[in-house]
From TrEMBL:
One of its GO terms (molecular function) is ATP binding. Coiled coil: none annotated. SMART domains: AAA. It comes from the Bacteria. Belongs to the ABC transporter superfamily. The keyword Transmembrane does not apply. Keywords: ATP-binding, Cell membrane, Membrane, Nucleotide-binding, Transport. This is ATP-binding cassette domain-containing protein. InterPro entries: AAA+_ATPase, ABC_transporter-like_ATP-bd, ABC_transporter-like_CS, ABC_transporter_ATP-bind, P-loop_NTPase.
């Protein structure tokens, strides 16, 4: 179980008063659950992931993964693939997986499953944006992380490529059963991926709506079921997205969708 209790996260003075990025943000994510976090620009989504992953320890509050501070079993995937340009595809994954024969076998299996078997020795600069994200996905899953933190990993890809990557992500998650915290601006993406979607208020971010998504899988972000759920949500919570932007308009609660 991932337990997030952030009383307050402040950034130091940037020429005016200190900026409070998160305040009173409480969230629990069950083992193996896929939780998406959506919210307006600047509400603190990336800050939340940095705090949860221990990249930023300057926070009032605490984060616990099975009762302890999250440590080695945490994987990250960011907006940019962040591959090492001087290492081959395989070596980029081995950098995280280790050099044992078992690690190498696992890395190759994963890359083949991601349809990258033909480019194991290629350098990232030769790959398309979508292929680079697939390498980053393989790198994220090769350690079978207990917790995977994902910060808009499929942003600025064309629709078919993003759909394909989402399908691969769900397949890997179903295989590994990692707990996933996935940040996105895109409500349809969140509804397509998540067991839950947590909506954050405008800054300072806190959870204002916690929605269980019970649509059957597989789901497509541009499929009818997701589009209908999105329309229903916006009708049930008029001003949900506008309200999020201004920090009002939704009462805390848990809905079924
Ligand atoms: N290192 C930092 N120092 C000072 N302020 C920061 C720092 N990092 C983020 N902020 C500020 O904290 C707020 C939240 O930033 P954050 O990147 O977490 O938001 P976000 O919801 O992820 O935004 P976006 O959706 O636009 O990526 C913003 O106002 C940002 O300018």
């Amino acid at each position: 179980m991932l337990e997030i209790d952030i009383d307050r996260k402040r950034y130091a003075d940037r020429g005016g008063s200190p900026h409070v990025a998160l305040s009173g943000l409480n969230l629990q994510v069950g083992d193996g659950e896929f939780a998406c976090v959506v919210g307006p620009s600047g509400c603190g989504k990336s800050t939340l992931l940095n705090v949860v992953g221990g990249l930023d320890g300057d926070v009032e509050g605490r984060v616990r993964l099975d009762g302890e501070a999250p440590g080695n079993g945490v994987g990250f995937m960011f907006q940019e693939p962040r591959l090492m340009p001087w290492l081959s595809v395989l070596d980029n994954v081995l950098l995280v997986a280790g050099r044992s024969a078992a690690a190498k076998a696992r890395a190759v299996d994963l890359l083949v499953a991601m349809e990258l078997g033909d480019v194991l020795q290629a350098y990232p600069g030769r790959l398309s944006g979508g292929m680079q994200r697939r390498v980053a996905l393989a790198r994220a899953f090769v350690i079978e992380p207990k917790l995977l933190l994902m910060d808009e990993p499929f942003v600025s890809l064309d629709v078919p490529t993003a759909n394909r990557l989402r399908a691969m992500l769900v397949e890997l998650w179903q295989r590994c059963r990692s707990t996933v915290l996935f940040v996105t601006h895109d409500l349809r993406e969140a509804l397509a991926l998540g067991d839950r979607v947590c909506f954050l208020s405008g800054a300072p971010g806190r959870v204002v709506l916690d929605l269980a998504v019970t649509l059957p899988r597989p789901r497509a972000a541009d499929g009818t079921a997701v589009l209908e759920l999105q329309a229903r949500l916006l009708a049930q919570h008029p001003g949900l997205l506008a309200g999020l932007a201004s920090g009002n308009g939704c009462a805390p609660g848990r809905d079924d969708g």
